[in-house]
Amino acid sequence: MIMRVFQVRTRPGQESAFATFFHDTAIPLMKSTDGIVEVLPGAARAESPREFCLVMVWRDLAALQAFVGEDIDSPHVDAAEAELVERRVIRHYDLITG
Known about the structure:
The chain is 30% helix and 35% strand. The protein is built from 3 helices and 4 strands; from the N terminus they run βαββααβ. The chain has helices at 15-31, 61-68, 79-82; strands spanning 2-10, 36-42, 51-58, 85-94. A 4-stranded antiparallel β-sheet has the order 2-3-1-4. The radius of gyration is 13 Å and the shape is globular. Keywords: Monooxygenase, Oxidoreductase. This is Antibiotic biosynthesis monooxygenase.
């Protein structure tokens, strides 16, 4: 299984709008995506109010590529999110179980 860690920093002043998008659109979308085993959303904290995180566990590389394409390092950006986010970071890891 592949763990995809997707971190975003919102544009200044867009924290509330992104939080709404995150809870109402991004999290439900990812939870309903074929190939996703688990979704772990991380909300902004007081010391980092513009930073959000989404950890997704994918069944395998083929499932991840079916969603994002061959280049798994490129973000899948919803049109509603595009103007709210200043920076995106994506990392992938092999999930350790047991």
